[in-house]
Amino acid sequence: MAKKHEYIQYFLKISSRNQTHDHSRVQKLAPTQVINGEMQFYARAKLFYQEVPATEEGMMGNFIELSNPDIQASREFLRKFVGGPGRAGTDCALDCGSGIGRVSKHVLLPVFNSVELVDMMESFLLEAQNYLQLSGDKVESYHCYNLQEFTPPLGRYDVIWIQWVSGYLTDKDLLAFLSRCRAGLKENGVIVLKDNVAREGCIFDLSDSSVTRDMDILRSLIKKSGLVVLGQEKQDGFPEQCVPVWMFALHSDGHS
């Protein structure tokens, strides 16, 4: 989803996912509750994004003022895990839930020799070709897939970036996707997972069919996928009323 990719990445949805959201559309789930992998869960999300404009504002849920602090924090976090002995290389990165390529343009393309985008929305990927035209020779490919159906090629990527999209996958599908991403990493490769993190339990937002998980649930899914947390950091510079956003650097449990 483009969220199959920024795919979900791209959409902050702060207005509906923060502490002031419309409670008639938001349900709290028990910490151990797992969303059914039924088609309606994914169909609602796709219907929602069909109405989202293929612009930076659309990717940010009309909170464009948060784009710069997001980009700055992402750049600084990435630098800690890329380049040098024992770190991820800078050959190829995958932007999951890429939307039009906001993260690719500002975070990944300045660092990597090539970048690939994956998103469920064809309209976003078509616009990405215009949005990224100045770096078009470094964009290796555009994959139009839902993340729950996408399998990264084995051992291809130095970094796989998954931002604001994990909440559009059921627990089962997120676990499976993280496992497939682990297999898609090169030696010393890193997955960066960046998303809203609930303060407690899970929050389901019916408006865009997304779930915000708390830290314990996220870390449990990460562990079950065969990944370990190399580092984590909270996003700074966002309004206090926003749901906290965290960045996780993940690598294979067998990483040396």
UniProtKB/TrEMBL annotation:
<feature type="binding site">
    <location>
        <position position="97"/>
    </location>
    <ligand>
        <name>S-adenosyl-L-methionine</name>
    </ligand>
</feature>
<keyword id="KW-0489">Methyltransferase</keyword>
<keyword id="KW-0949">S-adenosyl-L-methionine</keyword>
<dbReference type="Pfam" id="PF05891">
    <property type="entry name" value="Methyltransf_PK"/>
</dbReference>
<dbReference type="InterPro" id="IPR008576">
    <property type="entry name" value="MeTrfase_NTM1"/>
</dbReference>
<dbReference type="GO" id="GO:0071885">
    <property type="term" value="F:N-terminal protein N-methyltransferase activity"/>
</dbReference>
<dbReference type="InterPro" id="IPR029063">
    <property type="entry name" value="SAM-dependent_MTases_sf"/>
</dbReference>
<feature type="binding site">
    <location>
        <position position="102"/>
    </location>
    <ligand>
        <name>S-adenosyl-L-methionine</name>
    </ligand>
</feature>
<keyword id="KW-0007">Acetylation</keyword>
<keyword id="KW-0808">Transferase</keyword>
<dbReference type="GO" id="GO:0032259">
    <property type="term" value="P:methylation"/>
</dbReference>
<comment type="similarity">
    <text>Belongs to the methyltransferase superfamily. NTM1 family.</text>
</comment>
<dbReference type="GO" id="GO:0005634">
    <property type="term" value="C:nucleus"/>
</dbReference>
<comment type="function">
    <text>Distributive alpha-N-methyltransferase that methylates the N-terminus of target proteins containing the N-terminal motif [Ala/Gly/Pro/Ser]-Pro-Lys when the initiator Met is cleaved. Specifically catalyzes mono-, di- or tri-methylation of the exposed alpha-amino group of the Ala, Gly or Ser residue in the [Ala/Gly/Ser]-Pro-Lys motif and mono- or di-methylation of Pro in the Pro-Pro-Lys motif. Some of the substrates may be primed by NTMT2-mediated monomethylation. Catalyzes the trimethylation of the N-terminal Gly in CENPA (after removal of Met-1).</text>
</comment>
<dbReference type="GO" id="GO:0005737">
    <property type="term" value="C:cytoplasm"/>
</dbReference>
<protein>
    <recommendedName>
        <fullName>N-terminal Xaa-Pro-Lys N-methyltransferase 1</fullName>
    </recommendedName>
</protein>
<feature type="binding site">
    <location>
        <position position="163"/>
    </location>
    <ligand>
        <name>S-adenosyl-L-methionine</name>
    </ligand>
</feature>
<feature type="binding site">
    <location>
        <begin position="147"/>
        <end position="148"/>
    </location>
    <ligand>
        <name>S-adenosyl-L-methionine</name>
    </ligand>
</feature>
